[in-house]
Design brief:
Oligomer: single chain
Radius of gyration: 17 Å
Structural class: alpha+beta
Distance between the termini: 25 Å
Helix content: 10-25%
Shape: globular
Length: 145
């Protein structure tokens, strides 16, 4: 499935006059849907032609992940959209399973071929760590052009 829930995080001061601690609160914004020609964010279409670059710097958080004794909700993954008008939009999205991000492999490859998604980020998201695996994958991309 190429649909993920997206969240907004805001900090709220708590404690004596808000000086003691800041508490992060999350609120559901909607969904992010990855298509071959666009990305739909909370019901708003962003065409691939309107994007300069797409980045997914954080994608390892998933529901049920044990993070030093704390069970994660899986919603701290990050996608950054750099728009053609130089604005940058950052969204936190949720993964229910460990490798669920790989379900959008086709779309990510399409974004890469359109020059919108960096090859290094693509190999990281797809879990390609072995040098030979990366070379074979790169070769398969050029063979399919």
């Amino acid at each position: 499935m190429n649909t993920f829930k997206i969240y907004e995080y805001t900090e709220k001061a708590s404690g004596l006059f808000g000086f003691l601690r800041r508490k992060g609160q999350k609120s559901l914004l909607g969904e992010i849907v990855f298509h071959n020609d666009k990305i739909v964010v909370a019901g708003r279409d962003i065409l691939l032609s309107d994007l300069q670059q797409i980045r997914i710097p954080v994608f390892h958080d998933y529901h049920g992940r044990n993070d030093r004794g704390n069970i994660s909700q899986g919603n701290k993954n990050v996608v950054e959209l750099l728009l053609a008008n130089a604005n940058k939009e950052t969204y936190y999205f949720a993964l229910n399973e460990r490798y669920e991000i790989r379900s959008i492999k086709r779309q990510l490859i399409t974004y890469h071929k359109a020059g919108k998604f960096d090859f290094d980020n693509l190999t990281l998201v797809l879990g390609l760590e072995d040098y030979n695996a990366v070379l074979n994958f790169k070769r398969s991309l050029t063979d399919n052009i």
